[in-house]
Known about the structure:
Elements lengths: L1 E8 L8 E3 L17 H11 L27 E9 L15 E9 L2 E6 L2 E3 L1 H9 L16 H6 L3 H12 L2 H116 L5 H99 L3 H85 L5 H31 L16 H4 E4 L12 H8 L6 E3 L2 H4 L2 H4 L3
Antiparallel strand pairs: 1-2, 1-3, 3-4, 4-5, 5-6, 7-8
Helix pairs in contact: 5-6, 6-7
Amino acid sequence: xxxxxxxxxxxxxxxxxxxxxxxxxxxxxxxxxxxxxxxxxxxxxxxxxxxxxxxxxxxxxxxxxxxxxxxxxxxxxxxxxxxxxxxxxxxxxxxxxxxxxxxxxxxxxxxxxxxxxxxxxxxxxxxxxxxxxxxxxxxxxxxxxxxxxxxxxxxxxxxxxxxxxxxxxxxxxxxxxxxxxxxxxxxxxxxxxxxxxxxxxxxxxxxxxxxxxxxxxxxxxxxxxxxxxxxxxxxxxxxxxxxxxxxxxxxxxxxxxxxxxxxxxxxxxxxxxxxxxxxxxxxxxxxxxxxxxxxxxxxxxxxxxxxxxxxxxxxxxxxxxxxxxxxxxxxxxxxxxxxxxxxxxxxxxxxxxxxxxxxxxxxxxxxxxxxxxxxxxxxxxxxxxxxxxxxxxxxxxxxxxxxxxxxxxxxxxxxxxxxxxxxxxxxxxxxxxxxxxxxxxxxxxxxxxxxxxxxxxxxxxxxxxxxxxxxxxxxxxxxxxxxxxxxxxxxxxxxxxxxxxxxxxxxxxxxxxxxxxxxxxxxxxxxxxxxxxxxxxxxxxxxxxxxxxxxxxxxxxxxxxxxxxxxxxxxxxxxxxxxxxx
Length: 582
């Protein structure tokens, strides 16, 4: 690969576009007068190849490469070098498919950019391109600049080795190797940091999470077991409640059966009384003159018994309801009483146990207090003895110091135990106070339940009295003697009449629904409005058809006029807003 042509534009002394070339493959020389720009040609080659030391090309900044530093109207400098790349053995790696390579560098506004075959490229890419063919402009062995001979002659062995490596083409790989080693060192440091993080942070966290997982599994298992036991408990409680409900329902059914029997008897008695009342009225008419006084007395007795029977019936219903409520309350009270009794017994046991424990602690406190006083006296005696002996002999005071320290430790230990015992005594006293309060509350509730049981007994006695009075009334009514069969027949007739009336009402409602157009309703236009006088009704309701075969013809001929309203005067027809309201 060799230079074929150089194109300069705005570079140093070349203000306009200047093409230098073509160059020969084997021998080239640039000649000219002093100041004609011979050195600038060599500077342009170094400029394109990406030299980093600007002083070697007689420049301090990028702006020095622009013609007259940009003061003559030229604001950019560009240099393009075309290389002949037909010799594929010397072609750079990755570019053997090109017969010609054009490298361009442009400087503008202190900014530099590279182009490779017309495409943007980085400075490192340009350096790698030339290094691959042993053309390292920053350490050249192919280029001797001004003062380079003296520098080479004075170079150190290491620098000479660098020139040889550069000539052999291995310097580029050494640099890349050094960079790779630096990168590996950084990666190793990063790897060590990652391993440290794993050992110090991640691994303990994983262990903790694994422990948490085990705890969670244990919690889940315990939760399942708890749910199973809880479900069994709920099922058992449900079974108990069902059993209790069935028993309660049986009791309620028995009470309802007794109540229904009483109500039936009361109904029969009421019907008999009504029958007697009817018979009394008949007898009054037949024997008005002969037995007037007797009937009057009988009527008076009947009225009194009837009033008393009604009162007894009401009392019976009320007492029956109260009896049912009190029985339920009694059942609940008995259960609460059992629970309270058990709670009271347990609290009394706890209180006795706490008091025994408190007594033992009091004894222990007294013993420890006496022991502490003895230790204090011994400590004072030992301290005094140690002070006297210590002034005369240091060898003797050593054991006394140890004894004093031991006694002091014992004293502190007993003080600490004494504090703990005092704290425990306070806690037990609080438990006793709390249990005493609960015991008082439970005893109050027990008294309340006892009073409720007494109230229930009173109500039961009252119910028995009312029941006895009702039986006496039944006996009194039995003395009047009336026809039971006649009463049953009368009730049957009344029931049949009610059923017939209900059927007739259903038929009437059905007919009204089928002929809802004939259901004419309105609001009175004025107070005291006489409907029978002023409003006659709909046309269809004011006549009858003798022969039904003309009904359809009449309906078709009249049409909607059959539903017109017929009134007596025009004044009445003016109130149409009331008459048309259905």
